[in-house]
Structures are given as C-alpha cells and as structure tokens.
C-alpha cells in the first residue's frame, strides 16, 4: 500500500543499512519495477547498493500496461545488456520463467565457481523494489505461502528464511523496500498515478490535469470512445465535459473534487484502457 512521505527521512538510513546486510548474503538481485513506468519506478540507490551483482529486472503489472510498449522496454533492457522479464505477478505460473532467467543470468558465476574447483552451491537472490510494485506478491507466489508478510517488522533478520526456486536457486523471503526518487515533478505524478505514493503528496487536480493532457495527446480514443466527449486544448475544459456528461454536479455547479477523483480512479482501475506512461527514449 502507498505510504506517507513522512516515512522517508526517519527510516531511510535504517532501510538502507538493512538492505546492505541482506545484499551481502545474495548472489543476484531481482529488481521489480512497474511495467507502466519502468523508468520512474526505479530506485536510484539500488545501483549503488547492488554494485556489480547480476540483476534481473521484472516488470510487474504487465496486464495493466500496453503490450507493444512493454515489448519495446524489454528490448531496450536487452540492448543495454540487462536481463528483463515482464509478468503479471497475480497470474501465477511464472516460477519457471524466473528460474530460467536466473540460471542464464548467473551462468558466468557458476562457471567461475567451477573453474575455481568450488562445488556450486544454490545461488541466492533477493527481491527489491519501491513500495507497491509487487514484491510480496512475487515472493508469496514463488513460496506458495504467505512468506513475505513479516517483511517490515523489526527483527526479521534473526530468522532468515530461504525459498527454494528450482533445485539450485534460493530466494530470501524478505524483500528490500526502497523509496523512489522524485528527480522531477513528472516522476512524482507518474508514481502517484500508479498508486505507489500516497494521494496526499500530489494534489488530485494536478494529477488529473497531467493525466488528461497526456491521454489527450497519446490516447485520444479514451475521450472519443470511452468518455465520448470532445478534446479541448485545455485539459481542464476536457475534464469539465466529462463532468457534465456524467452529472458530477453539486448545487448545479460542476463538482471538481468528485470529477478529479473519479477520473483518477478510472485510470488506476484501467477502466478507460491500459497505458504505458513512458518510453526508453522519452
Ligand atoms: N494487476 C496486477 N496487480 C498486481 C501485480 N503485482 C502486484 N499487484 C497488486 O499490487 C498491489 C501491491 O502488491 P504487493 O505485492 O503488496 O507490493 P509490495 O511491493 O510488496 O508493496 P510494499 O510491501 O508496500 O512495498 C497488490 O494489490 C497486488 O495484488 C500484477 O502483476 N498485476
Ligand atoms: Mg510487501
């Protein structure tokens, strides 16, 4: 669930330290990002923390993104030499995909161990990502039980549990949670749109206007087919059309509050379509 921004300063150092501890115990990292915003849902600190360990990027919520654009993102990561996989984490039956990708990713590591005459032990991984991207969903699905539940309670490090994935891969059952970075306002808006940060941080009006403007340019069909209203130059005017059409009124006036909330909810629930809000070369 989205958390308030106040969470950031107090817990950040502690979270980072815990993460460093956990990272010491693993050979590779599964980094989850949201397929709708694969760039903005990245945690910049992770690069620094993970350093040279192999990394598998899982783009979650593939079912909520545009299929062709997700394929382009996967392509992009591949050309950058980064292993990536897009999944609907709620659908299950992806364990083999993860195992296969992990084996490929760690092939050089296994080779190295063999060359040194070390008998290969199971490779260990941990799941990392910003809030709400699907870390617990992935871990629980792979574990076949509610393993990731206790992630945020103190003292979990005392009883580390490993989940077996195939015969030679193990997964730490506690995920590493790191906050995204709001390098610019648009990143914050996108994170709020997908529900990764609390609604109190970004005003609903800003969010609705941003989304309306973007959709008008990139997905005019949303207004033509779904809302059946004309697109105006000013996003606010387009939104007013929706309010009139839907009868979002209060004492004969347009109820802006209700309008903005309803519009955002339509987007978050994918009622008016599935969208990928950014591309590698944006
Ligand atoms: N449609 C869809 N929903 C998903 C997917 N992955 C996760 N979810 C949903 O997204 C929400 C957040 O998932 P979690 O697994 O709790 O995310 P998390 O990363 O553990 O979140 P924190 O513990 O808050 O950091 C839940 O409602 C999940 O059901 C996916 O691939 N598709
Ligand atoms: Mg979780």
TrEMBL record:
It is found in: Cytoplasm. InterPro entries: G_CP_dom (IPR030378), GTP-bd (IPR006073), GTP-bd_ortho_bundle_sf (IPR023179), GTP-bd_ribosome_bgen (IPR019991), GTPase_MTG1 (IPR016478), P-loop_NTPase (IPR027417). PROSITE patterns: G_CP. Required for a late step of 50S ribosomal subunit assembly. Has GTPase activity. PANTHER family: MITOCHONDRIAL RIBOSOME-ASSOCIATED GTPASE 1. GTP binds at residues 132-137, 176. Residues 16-180 form the CP-type G domain. The keyword Secreted does not apply. The keyword Calcium does not apply. GO terms for molecular function: GTP binding; GTPase activity. One of its GO terms (cellular component) is cytoplasm. GO terms for biological process: translation. This is Ribosome biogenesis GTPase A.
